[in-house]
Amino acid sequence: WMNADCYNTKLPYVCTKSVFNDTIHQPAGCTVKRQYAPGDEIFSPGYPQAPGVTACDYLLLEPNQGKKAEVTIDFFETNSCCDTLTIYDGHFGSNILKTMTGSYTSPVTIRASSNAMRLYWNATSGAHVRGFRAKMGSV
């Protein structure tokens, strides 16, 4: 076995490099932060470790009522059987914009029809997966 620079060394065998190197670690349990603004990062509990069994609510609010809130989920890994992230339109979340489960390999952006949206994380297995990482924006 030998470690070598995968990009600059020409070798007659396969060389791999991990693409997941997240240095941000979140505490277990739901965050105490109740409201998120554009530019804020949002994480599932324990990210990037398994989130455990948790249910958390996140309010995303753009202060300018003339703009629309949006969220970009740039990492998402859950157990399809049991763990979901539901994204609701508005403060009180009566209209579901998207429910995510399983794994997504590309970033997903969801836009609200107003300056507010709500995320609801529901993990009933929360094992052997890393959860989600997202960022709030507005347009």
Structure description:
The protein is an all-beta fold and 139 residues long. A 5-stranded mixed sheet has the order 1-3-9-5-6, with no helix packed on it. A hairpin with a 5-residue loop joins β5 and β6 (95-100). Helices cover 0% and strands 41% of the residues. The protein has strands spanning 35-36, 41-43, 54-61, 69-77, 83-89, 95-100, 103-104, 108-111, 116-123, 131-138. The model is unreliable at 16-20 (pLDDT under 50). This is CUB domain-containing protein. Residues 30-139 form the CUB domain. It holds the Pfam family CUB.
Blueprint of the fold:
Layout: E1 35-36, E2 41-43, E3 54-61, E4 69-77, E5 83-89, E6 95-100, E7 103-104, E8 108-111, E9 116-123, E10 131-138
Parallel strand pairs: 1-3
Antiparallel strand pairs: 2-10, 3-9, 4-7, 4-8, 4-10, 5-6, 5-9
Distance between the termini: 50 Å
**Whole-number mean pLDDT:** 86
Specify the overall morphology.
Answer: globular
SS strand fraction: 35-45%
Unreliable stretches (pLDDT < 50, length at least 5) are 16-20
Rounded to an integer in angstroms, the radius of gyration calculated over CA atoms is: 18 Å
SSE string, helices as H and strands as E: EEEEEEEEEE
Number of separate helices: 0
Reported for the largest beta sheet, the result is: 5 strands, mixed
By helix and strand content, what is the structural category? mainly beta
- Across the major sheet, the strand order is 1-3-9-5-6
The number of strands is: 10
Helix content: under 10%
